[in-house]
Amino acid sequence: MYEIPLITADNFITYALNGLSRGMIIFLVASGLSLIFGLIGLINFAHGSMLALGGYGTYIVIQATGNFWLGLIVSVVLVTLLGFALERKLLYWIYDEPLLGFLGTFGIGLVIEEAIAVYFGSRSYTVSSPLPESVQVLGVSYPSYRLFVILVGALVALGIGALLTKTRLGLEIHATANRQSTAEILGVDTARIYTITFVLGTGLAALAGALTAPITSMYPTIGLDYITMAFLVIIVGGMGSFKGSLVVSLIVGQIIAFGWLVLAPTYVRILIFAAAMVFILYKPRGFFGKPEVHE
Amino acid sequence: MSELLSVDGLNAFYGDSQVLFDVSLSLDTNDVVGVFGRNGMGKTTLLNSLVNRIDRKTGTVTYGDRDISEWSTHEIIREGIAYVPEEREIYPALTVRENLDLALSSSVPDEVREDRIENVFGQFERLGERHDQRGGTLSGGEQQMLAIGRALVTDPDLLLLDEPTEGLAPVIIDDVVDILESLVTGDRSVLIVEQNIKRMLPLIDRGYMIQTGQIVDEGDSEYLAQEEIHEKYLTV
Amino acid sequence: MSDTIADIRGFARGTARRPLLALGVLLVLAVPFLFPSQSDLATEALIFGLFAISVDIALGYAGLLTLAPAAFFGLGSYTVAKIVVDYDMSFWLGFPVAIVLALLLAFAVGYIPIKRRIGHVYFVLFTLAFGAIVYDFTFVTTSLTGGSDGLGFFSPPDLFGIDLGAQTPYYYFTLLLVAVVGFGTYVLIKSDYGDVLHATRQNELRMRYLGYDTNRELMIAWLISAGISAFAGAMYVGSVGIASPSDVSFALTGDVIIWIIVGGTGTLLGPFAAAIGLVFTQEILQSVWLEGYRMLLGILFVVFVFVLPDGLMGLIRGDE
Q1: From CA B170, how far away is CA B177, in angstroms rounded?
Q2: Which one of A20, A61, B199, C158 is separated from B29 by 20 to 30 angstroms, measured CA to CA?
Q3: Residue B1 predicted with pLDDT over 60
Q4: What ipTM does this complex have?
Q5: Nearest Cβ partner of B102 from A175, A181, A290?
Q6: How confident is the model at residue A52 (pLDDT cuts 50, 70, 90)?
C-alpha cells in the first residue's frame, strides 16, 4: 500500500510545474489531433507516429551535429513536409469514409512505427537536456528545459488561438469545419484548408515529439501512448474545441503530477481513461464542444 | 447581347438516382431568367449542378467562353458567380460582418473590402445595425438579406438565387421582392429558381418550366404569365 | 487486368469451388504429417483464424468497429491460466468460465454505447479507452494477473488418454473446436439472424419500423463476438502454456484488424483465411527479415485499405 507523502510548499510547486510541462506536451499532441478531427472528421491514428518521428528525428540530428535546437527545427520541418505529402497523396481520398480514414491512418502509423523499430530496434533512447542547468522559480530550483517546454506550449496556445479567432485563415477554417459545402459556395478552397490544417496538426505532433525527447525516453510506439491520452483529452475537452483541449490537457497534466502521491501512475491512467469513457457516453461533446461541430 | 451561361445536355445524379435529364438552357449578359416548377422537380439540383455541388453530373456548362463543367465549386464562385442557397446557410456562430467578410476573396484589398461591406450595409440597413450580432440571432427575413448580401458583396457577374421567397412570411416576401427588383435593374445577370412564379414575373425577362428533371416549356414573361401554363406545371 | 480478376473470381466461385474446398480441408488435416515441426504454428494460425472470425461478426456484420478485441481474447487466456495455475482447478472449467466472464464484461461495456447509438467515431474511441484500461490493468494487478510475467506455465491435461500437451494432439483438438465453432458461426450468419443484421446495417430505421429491436440484434452480435474471442483466447493459452500481457495488447488488436481488412470485412471466411495466411507469412518473413516483417505487414495493410478496401474476398466475390 501507498503511504500518502507529506506535501511541502516546495515540492508542491515542483509537482505543479511538472504537471504543467507534461500538460503542455499533451496539449501539443491533443490540439493537433483535435484540429484535424474537428475540421476533417478524421480519426488520425497516424498522429502518434508523427510524434515519434519528431523525437527520433531530433535524436538523429543530435547524433550527427550535437545540436538539439537544430534537431528540433529540422525534424519538425521534415515531419511537417511528410504530413503535407501524406495528406495530398493519400489521405484526401478517404475523408468521406470515417472507417477507412481510421484504418488508413492506422496502417500508415503502423508502417512508420515499424520502420522506426527496424532502424533503431525496440530499445528506448534518451536525449540529454540541451539546458541542463536549473533556475530558481517561486523559491524552488527547477530545470530550465522544462520551463522552456512550458513556454513553448504557452506560445503555441496563444499563437494558434489567435490564428483561429483573429485571422482570415481562422475564419475559413471555422467555415469549413462547420459547413464545408457552404464554405465552397462562398469561394473557400476547402481542400486547401484541409491540407493546411492537417499539416499544422502534424507539425504540432512533431514539435511535441522533439520537445519530449530530453524529458522521457523514446521507443517506437511512444506515439500510441500519447495519442490514446490525447484522444481522451479531446473528448473531454470537446472535439474540435481548441480551448477545450488546452484546459483539459493542463488538468490531466496536474492529475498525473499529483496523482502518483496517492496512486500508482498506471492507476491514474486507468482512472483518466475511465473518466473519458463516461464522457463519451454521457457528454460526447465534452465541456467546450459546440453543438455545430463536425460529426 | 452575348451569351454568358450556357447549359447543354445536363444530367445530374444523387447517388444512384438521376434527378436531371438532358437539361439545356442559356442566359445572356444582363438577362434575368427564371426556372419554375413544383417542389422536388429538380430546381435546387439544377443550381447545385451549375456550381458542382453534387455527386455526379454529365453534360457541359459554359460560362463566358470557358467550359466550367469540371471545375470545383470554389473555382466557379471565384470566377464571378454568386450563389444564394435556399436554406440561406448563414454561419450562426459568426457575426454578420464575418459572414460577409468570408464571402470576399482574400485577394480583395482591404480598402475595397470595407467599401463593399459598407455598400451591403447601405442596401440592407437592418444588417448594418446588426453588424456585430451573430448570424444565428437574426430573423428569417434578416438571414435571407444576409444571404443575398453575402452574394452581392463579391460584386458578381452572375447571381444564382434558390427560392428566395421560400419559407418567409408574406410581409417579408414583399421586402425580399423589393430587394430583388433593385438587384435585377443593375448590370448583372440573374438566374432565379422559384415556385412562386407570380411574384417573379415582373422581375424576369425569360423563363423555363421544369418538371421531373426536364425542361418542358420556355418563353418570355408574357408567355409565362398565362394561367394555363401555371395550372399545367405549377398547381399542386 | 479486370478480365483476369473476373476469371479468377468466376473460377473460385464456380467450377473450382468444391475441389478447392476439399483441397483446403485435406491440407489442414495433413499439416502435422507434412510439416511436423510447424504444428504449433498451425495451431496458433487456426486460433487466430477463429479470433478473426469472431471480430468480423462485430465489425463486418454489426458494423461495430472495436479497438478492444484483444481485451476479450486476453480475458479468455487469463481466465484459463488463472484457474489452472493459481486455483489448481481443471483446464476444462476454464472454458465455460472464460466465456461467461467475457459475455458479462461485453454486456457491461457494450450496453450503453449500443443502446445510445454513439456512432462509429465514438465507438472507436470508447473501445480504445477500454482496451487501454484492460491492458494497463493486466500490468498493474500483479497479484491477480502476474503483471508483466504473466501466468504460466502449464500444460493441458489428458483427454481420453491422449496427452493434449503434445503438439499434434493439441493441433487436432484445436482444429475440431475451430471447425465446430466456425461452422456454427457460419450457420448463424446465413440464418435469418444474419439477414436481419445485414438489413440493420443497410437501413436501421426501416428495420425498427418493421418491428425489430435493432439494439438487441446488435447486442447479440457483440456478445457472440466477445464470447468467441474469449474462447479463442482460452484455446490459445492451452497451446502456449502462459497468459501474458501481449494477449491483451493493442498490437494484437492491430493484427486482427489487419487480418479482417486483408481478408475482407463481413465475409467470415476471408478474415479466417487471411489470419492463417498472414501468420504463416509472418513466420517466413521473420526468418528472412526479423526486424522488418511487421513493417511489410503494415505496408500490405495500407495497400489493402487504399486499393482494395473490400479485401481479398471482396475481390473474389465481386459485388453481391
Answers
A1: 10
A2: B199
A3: no
A4: 0.89
A5: A175
A6: very high
pTM above 0.95, yes or no: no
C chain contacts of residue A30, beta-carbon cutoff 8 Å: none
- The C-alpha angle with vertex A280 and arms to A277 and A283, in degrees rounded to 5, equals 125
Q: Which residues of B touch A168 (CB under 8 A)?
A: 101, 106
Q: Is C148 exposed, middle or buried (0-12, 13-18, 19+ CB in 10 A)?
A: exposed
Instruction: For residues B172 and A82, give the distance between their C-alpha atoms in angstroms, rounded to a whole number.
Output: 53
Residue C269: closest CA among C53, C111, C108, C61? C53
Of A212-216, B78-82, C168-172, the one with minimum mean pLDDT is C168-172
Nearest CA in chain A to C302: A107
**Which residues does A contribute to its contact with B (CB < 8 Å)?**
168, 171-172, 174-175, 178-179, 181-191, 290, 292
CB-CB contact of C238 with C90 (8 Å): no
Closest-CA residue of A relative to C133 is A270
Q: Name the residue of chain C whose CA is nearest to A285's CA.
A: C122
Whether residue C136 contacts residue A269, with contact meaning beta carbons closer than 8 Å, is answered with yes
pLDDT tens-digit series, residues A157-182: 999 999 998 999 999 999 998 888 99
Distance CA C68, CA C73 (A): 9
Report percent pLDDT > 90 for chain A. Answer: 51
Cβ contact, residue pair A264, C129, below 8 Å: no
In chain C, % helix, strand, coil (3-state, to 5) comes to: 80, 0, 15
Report whether C212 contacts C205 (CB < 8 A): no
- Residue A102, CB half-sphere, CA atoms under 13 Å: how many? 18
* C178-210 pLDDT tens trace: 989 999 998 888 888 888 888 887 777 788 878
Distance CA C199, CA A254 (A): 48
In 3D space, the residue among B87, B22, B28 whose CA is nearest the CA of residue B53 turns out to be B87
Q: Is A36 on the interface with C (CB under 8 A)?
A: no
